[in-house]
Specification:
single chain, alpha+beta, 2 domains, eleven-stranded antiparallel β-sheet, 16 strands, disordered N terminus
Length: about 240
């Protein structure tokens, strides 16, 4: 029964950042930059993501609720950066209107827990969450949700590097290392990631510098990485504003 809800929610929720690259690196980047045991102090704060229709899923993903989809979210979305970790907080109300989603007979086939568990676990990495059914009137369910998703926690498989103005988050998985960049400008924080166009540029740089550019997993030299930054790499961007700690 869960499979039906995954399909339904997959239609309703659009993932921004679909132009993101899946390129992997053979080692944490940038090559030669020193690894940090903690985030720089100026990055350690709470940052608010303000949007009426979009919430943050990951460093390269925003989840946008389709207009007139039958799902509405009225929630505060905050990113908390501590010395070792990045946490995604989502607190507020989520409403499911089955007059729009499906008919009430279909709703009766799915336990309430299945609805929320499927929604959360489908879209978040390592969520710790609680929810309560606030109201159940006619064909409308309203849930109060308090979610904390661990996006990143410094370890041997989650490596922080500082290079020039950027902080680089390296996340190891079976295929290699995924790479994300964080930039601070006054009270504005940006999560940036490599787009498909960026990947094309990076592979062209590697080819021109006579480095291996055809493998799925790449190993750019420091010079190639600098050139990539100069060419405007990390095109995909999610912006947040510093809030109160």
């Amino acid at each position: 029964m869960k499979r039906g809800w995954i399909y339904l929610l997959g239609i309703i929720i659009f993932v921004y950042g679909c132009g993101g690259s899946e390129i992997k690196f053979s080692a944490p980047q940038p090559n030669g930059a020193k690894s940090l045991t903690a985030f720089p102090s100026d990055f350690q704060s709470n940052f608010n993501f303000v949007s009426d229709s979009t919430i943050i899923g990951y460093f390269d993903k925003e989840y946008s609720i389709a207009p007139d989809s039958g799902i509405t979210i009225d929630a505060k979305n905050t990113i908390e950066i501590t010395d070792k970790a990045v946490f995604n907080h989502l607190e507020g109300a989520l409403t499911l209107d089955f007059k729009i989603l499906e008919d009430s007979a279909t709703r009766a086939q799915f336990p309430r827990e299945s609805i929320m568990d499927t929604l959360i676990n489908q879209y978040y990495q390592r969520p710790n969450y609680q929810f309560t059914l606030a109201s159940n009137e006619d064909s409308v369910l309203v849930f109060n949700v308090n979610l904390v998703d661990t996006m990143f926690y410094a370890s041997n498989r989650n490596v922080i590097k500082k290079y020039k103005k950027g902080v680089y988050l390296n996340v190891e998985n079976e295929a290699g290392w995924s790479l994300y960049q964080m930039l601070m400008n006054d009270d504005l924080l940006s999560f940036t990631s490599i787009s498909n166009d960026d990947e094309t540029i990076l592979r062209r740089i590697l080819k021109n510098n006579e480095e291996d550019y055809e493998n799925e997993v790449v190993s750019p030299s420091k010079n190639s990485f600098n050139e990539f930054l100069y060419m405007g790499g990390f095109e995909n961007r999610i912006g947040l504003r510093k809030g109160q700690n």
